[in-house]
Amino acid sequence: MAPNTRVKICGLSNATSVHAACLGGAGYVGFVFFEKSPRNVSIETARALAIAVPPGIAKVALTVDASDAALEQITDVVSLDMLQLHGNETPERVSDVRAKFGLPVMKAIGVSDASDVAKIDLYSGVADQLLIDAKPPKTGDLPGGNGVSFDWRLIANRRWGSPWMLAGGLTPDNVAEAIALTGARQVDVSSGVETAPGRKDNALIARFLANA
Description:
The structure is a single chain. By secondary structure, the chain is an alpha/beta fold. The protein has a single domain, classed as Aldolase class I (TIM Barrel, Alpha-Beta Barrel), CATH 3.20.20.70. The protein is 32% helix and 21% strand. It contains seven helices and ten strands. The chain has helices at residues 15-24, 43-51, 68-77, 91-101, 114-123, 175-182, 202-211, and strands at 6-9, 28-33, 58-63, 82-85, 105-111, 129-134, 164-166, 186-189, 194-196, 199-200. The chain has an eight-stranded parallel beta sheet with strand order 7-6-5-4-3-2-1-8. α1 (15-24) packs parallel to α7 (202-211). The radius of gyration is 16 Å and the shape is globular.
């Protein structure tokens, strides 16, 4: 893994996968709180997993259009470093969540064409970080973790007012190319290190981290 590339392994649901991510040098570990996802974890499971994460590795909660009550339940129980908003949250909602919960917020923005790239500016400087992901298929239920990518040339060497992370269809085989093409300093993977939806593979995690 290049010294300037930080990696987020998302959708972790068991202790062995968390250990593999941390051991391999991940900068972030992500826990999904979205019932439709095969990576969904209970608050109690996430609490136990988060306790095992060494200091210096950011623990991120992925939520989708979550209410204040839902976010309060999560943040009251799980030791977290960041909230990831992966739904249709407006810039105003991002600001509101930051103010109410006192945690940095990462906002996911789906991209499929140049018009979507323009929307990133709306969240630049509002969110603490931007997650630039592939827009989900229109027929899909999941806002992320779909294993699809977008044309990376759309954001090649772009910079915004907030740090950004590349996501969407990344695998151990293409992550180095994606970094080289976009200039991304941070990358996120979920389905790309799985053998089946929600089933992480420790060897794939290690290979992704090494290739990043």
